[in-house]
Design brief:
This protein is an alpha+beta fold. Helix content is 42%, strand content 30%.
Length: 97
Amino acid sequence: MPTYITLLKLTEQGVKNIKEAPARVEQAIKAMEAGGGKFIAFYATMGKYDYVVIGEAPSDEAMMTYLLALGALGNVRSTTMKAFNKEQFADLVKKLP
């Protein structure tokens, strides 16, 4: 499955309801798994982004659907990057002319 790294920033609503955040994280994990994905890691971070999530999804379309649903809840805004592990990266480099 493709891997994705998502950087999340709390919205004003998300900060206002921060005490509910741990439960929302658990709900997000269940939603990702219900869509066929796999939640690999979650980190609360200091700096420009509030959370970093690493996950897998069956396809870009499945991940996009999940992210749209997550964003529609109004607690976070996301920036997502498709990621390639070192073996996948090496295979890509081998294909260069």
